[in-house]
Amino acid sequence: MSTPETSRFVRLRVELVLEVEDAGEVTKAALRRIAGDPDLPGDERAHAEAAVTEDTAEALAYLVDPFDLVSEVPGIELQQASWSSEPISYDPDSPDWDLDEDDDERDDEDDEEGGIG
User: Nearest CA to 14 among 116, 99, 109?
Assistant: First the structure.
């Protein structure tokens, strides 16, 4: 019996819902990050400043960096990352916001295939 080869690559999916209590503070923090980036060309800097000033979700996306989330994890190297943010309507009591929904579907699929679930 042979052991199936395991991929060295893992997709980590994270979904966060954040409540912005002070949009001005989020914007200020994003502007500070932009101002402190010496590698950002002037035209890109102006575009980034305008974007984070007009849209709190854009400011938040500028502040949250997936590399920061995994840079201290030993034994891994980030290969690719993408992220976005958007304003949403959120009702924590709604079944539409069940964070384990994807896990339940995967568990059902594993059960059907004879996997662990």
Answer: 99
Q: 2 φ, ψ to 5°?
A: -100, 150
Residues 43, 49: Cα–Cα separation, whole Å = 10
Residue of 79, 13, 55, 12 whose CA lies nearest to 63:
55
Cβ proximity of 61 and 83 under 8 Å = yes
pTM over 0.70: no
Contacts of 82 by beta carbon, 8 Å cutoff, 6+ apart:
none
Per the domain annotation, does 11 fall within a domain? no
Q: Is 13 a domain residue? A: no
Sorted by sequence, the CB contacts under 8 Å of residue 57 that are 6+ apart come out as 85, 86, 87
Count structural domains, the chain.
1
111: pLDDT strictly greater than 80: no
